[in-house]
């Protein structure tokens, strides 16, 4: 393996450790995947300096195919697509994987079981960031699948001890509609920003100490000034965690820029 620990003999120089290759399962939608690409490259440059950038591979879906499976409830077929993407990235040389969407973490366990390289689950660094900030009761915004099913909020509660609040039925429908009818199509509307502000305010009224932007497109619409409590952007947090993992133990060559 490329990143096995190297144990030099006495007097032998240590071989530099390369950056790990980040495998990105993207295209769901490409707007947020472009943010992942930007964040991981800016993160590597900022931390390592010079002309450094991330070593990464991306498999990008035609999102129309994935969206059709989601709304038809054909999750087994969607899982098969995700496993195929993960295996392609593994064969291509990725050292670990990210699923660049919250919703498709519904099949994270199946994807992880299908490959030998680690999957960095989006909920884990998000929860760690929230706990480090001292918050325990959080609101969750995302697709209806993410808000209503247990694969995501259950992980936050069971593994990380967070109390998760979701919007009421009408607000969930609004949040979901804006994601699929606008954000994944690159549309950012002022009226929709106001709608999200109102949903967030109602979560705060119910006791939310912070709010998770649990869809990777929401960060295109909602900014810190739109909320009275801290917002936790899963796109940025997930990508930052990938940078941490990619450069852990990295020892650049003295000749490198």
TrEMBL record:
EC number: 5.1.1.-
Pfam families (alphabetical): Asp_Glu_race
Keyword Transferase: no
Coiled coil: none
MF terms in GO: isomerase activity
Keyword Phosphoprotein: no
EC top class, as a word: isomerase
Record keywords, A-Z: Isomerase
PANTHER family: ASPARTATE-GLUTAMATE RACEMASE FAMILY, GLUTAMATE RACEMASE
Membership in a protein family: Belongs to the aspartate/glutamate racemases family.
Protein name: Amino acid racemase
Organism per entry: Azospirillum melinis
């Amino acid at each position: 393996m490329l990143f096995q620990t190297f144990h030099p003999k006495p007097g032998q120089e240590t071989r530099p450790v390369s950056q790990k290759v980040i495998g990105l399962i993207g295209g769901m939608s490409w707007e947020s995947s472009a943010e992942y690409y930007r964040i991981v490259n800016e993160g590597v440059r900022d931390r390592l300096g010079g002309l450094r950038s991330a070593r990464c591979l991306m498999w990008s879906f035609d999102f129309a195919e994935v969206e059709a499976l989601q709304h038809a409830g054909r999750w087994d077929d969607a899982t098969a697509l995700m496993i195929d993407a993960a295996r392609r990235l593994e064969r291509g040389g990725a050292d670990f994987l990210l699923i660049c969407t919250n919703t498709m973490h519904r099949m994270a366990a199946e994807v992880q079981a299908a490959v030998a390289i680690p999957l960095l689950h989006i909920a884990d660094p998000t929860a760690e960031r929230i706990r480090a900030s001292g918050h325990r009761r959080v609101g969750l915004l995302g697709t209806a699948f993410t808000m209503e099913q247990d694969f995501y909020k259950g992980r936050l509660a069971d593994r990380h001890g967070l109390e998760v609040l979701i919007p009421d039925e009408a607000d969930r429908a609004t949040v979901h509609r804006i994601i699929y009818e606008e954000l994944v199509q690159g549309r950012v509307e002022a009226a929709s920003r106001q709608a999200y502000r109102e949903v967030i305010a109602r979560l705060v009224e119910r006791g939310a100490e912070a709010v998770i932007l649990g869809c990777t497109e929401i960060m295109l619409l909602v900014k810190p000034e739109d909320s009275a409590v801290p917002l936790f952007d899963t796109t940025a947090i997930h990508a930052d965690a990938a940078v941490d993992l990619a450069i852990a133990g990295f020892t650049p060559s003295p000749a490198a820029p």
